[in-house]
Design goal:
484 residues; alpha+beta; Catalase HpII,  Chain A, domain 1; 2 domains; 10-stranded antiparallel β-sheet; two-stranded antiparallel sheet; Catalase_AS
């Protein structure tokens, strides 16, 4: 038998390429997973110099104003009192395309916000969808490779896309959203935004809750049909960028209401879906939306490169009162995003004007390429020291949570990838279902291997028999008997 073992870049065999090593089933992810770190670090360096993902984007300045008192849940200063305003910068983007790609393609939209608070910057780095295709960061480079260009033809490869999705059934929920009418927003102003991951809020007393962020557009949801989107892509590939700029320029300031879902910490152990699995949502019947505030975009960039292109975001850019969860996808992003920025923009990307905190930064980081400030001057450059340098503040540590288990590569306990995707399908009107099926059929027809089509049809059928049957009929195939 031919040895076809997957190996690391240094030739060692890889024992598990599907699950990162965590401390117990819920993590957190361990830095000892050298395969994960090598995989992510190499992936971040695959393109020069544009972003590996989210290359095409548009941005704007604005503010966030608190409209509801949530200080019982978090001590974060930007949420501290009704009426408080915090300046911010937002970048919207498509995920898979290059810098010159069209705005109106079917793709998730990045929805990233940098809040300039008095306690440092806080980034919410999400999408216009509440879930994602995968739930472990170790699979992210492979997933994005399928969205990029084939190494031989240099063309997009539908066979690779659907092969990966059909072999990763956790993607079904997000695929169903992407292929629905919401897969192509009419403008960047007419879509919702989500933090997607579960985060932890901690109040001044040290009490915590799990939360999810929802930004609801005040402009209403509007989408484009595939035909109109294709026409616009040919006539004006920068349509979304232009629309956002022109709306702000004429004073039609787009706005979103921020809501959170709040889950008591103890519910995480009993909820019917793992609340840290980013391929799942929390039912709003179980955890209703609670209003927090309002985001308004009211100023365009003066220079696209300096502000939009050099803006760097990371879910690891946190402030006191906001902590992370054991979400395996989030845990990987905490490393990968900052690492990508160090590679793409430079070790001192945080010091650039668009990324610089509005409060004074005090640390012992020195030197690096393009250090353009005072580099700490002659101040003490190590810690601990006897010369009055800045010291740690224990009250600002991230909140603790218990960890148990064996350090190993572990999958999520829950493997129901079908209920929520089926619920989404059943919530749709007949017109929306017809659009969804037509979009899927059109996207899957170029797939060259029938086995892949049948495997994916099986996933649709398990979500809802009608869903799978209609896709199969559209492709001129039958639902596999073993699925029925």
């Amino acid at each position: 038998m031919t040895n076809n073992k997957l190996t690391t870049s240094w030739g060692a065999p890889v024992g598990d390429n599907q699950n990162s090593i965590t401390a117990g089933g819920r993590g957190p992810t361990l830095i000892q997973d050298v395969h994960l770190l090598e995989k992510l670090a190499h992936f971040n360096r695959e393109r020069v110099p544009e972003r590996v993902v989210h290359a095409k984007g548009a941005g704007a300045h604005g503010y966030f104003e608190v409209t509801n008192d949530v200080s019982n849940y978090t001590k974060a200063s930007l949420f501290s009192k009704v009426g408080k305003r915090t300046p911010l910068f937002v970048r919207f983007s498509t995920v898979a395309g290059e810098l010159g790609s069209a705005d109106t393609v079917r793709d998730p939209r990045g929805f990233s916000i940098k809040f300039y608070t008095e306690e440092g910057n806080y980034d919410i780095v999400g999408n216009n969808t509440p879930v994602f295709f995968i739930r472990d960061a170790i699979k992210f480079p492979d997933f994005i490779h399928t969205q990029k260009r084939d190494p031989q033809t240099h063309l997009k490869n539908p066979t690779a896309v659907w092969d990966f999705w059909s072999l990763s059934p956790e993607s079904l929920h997000q695929v169903s959203i992407l292929m629905s009418d919401r897969g192509i927003p009419a403008t960047l102003r007419h879509m919702h935004g989500f933090g997607s991951h579960t985060f932890k809020w901690t109040n001044a007393e040290g009490d915590g809750v799990w939360i999810k962020y929802h930004f609801k557009t005040e402009q209403g949801i509007k989408n484009l049909s595939p035909d109109v989107a294709a026409q616009i892509a040919g006539e004006n590939p920068d349509y979304h960028t232009e629309d956002l700029f022109n709306a702000i320029e004429k004073g039609d300031f787009p706005a979103w209401k921020l809501y959170v879902q709040i889950m008591p910490l103890e519910d995480a152990d009993t909820y019917r879906f793992d609340p840290f699995d980013v391929t799942k949502v929390w039912s709003q019947k179980d955890y209703p939306l609670i209003e927090v505030g309002r985001m308004v975009l009211n100023r365009n960039p003066e220079n696209y490169f300096a502000e939009v292109e050099q803006a760097t975001f990371s879910p690891g850019t946190l402030v006191p009162g906001v902590d992370v969860s054991p979400d395996k996808m989030l845990q990987g992003r905490l490393f990968a995003y900052h690492d990508a920025h160090r590679y793409r923009v430079g070790a001192n990307h945080q010091a650039l004007p668009i990324n610089r905190a509005r409060n004074e930064v005090k640390n012992y980081q020195r030197d690096g390429q393009m250090r353009f400030d005072g580099n700490g001057g002659k101040s003490v450059y190590y810690e601990p020291n006897s010369f009055g340098g800045p010291t740690e503040s224990p009250e600002d540590k991230q909140a603790a949570y218990p960890v148990t288990g064996v350090a190993e590569s572990v999958a999520y306990d829950h493997h129901d990838h079908y209920t929520q995707a089926g619920d989404l399908y059943r919530l749709m009107t007949e017109e929306q279902r017809a659009h969804l099926v037509a979009n899927i059929v059109g996207a899957m027809k170029p797939v060259t291997k029938e086995e892949i089509k049948l495997r994916q049809i099986g996933h649709f059928y398990k979500a809802d028999p009608e869903y799978g049957t209609r896709v199969a009929e559209g492709l001129g195939l039958s639902v596999p008997e073993e699925v029925k």
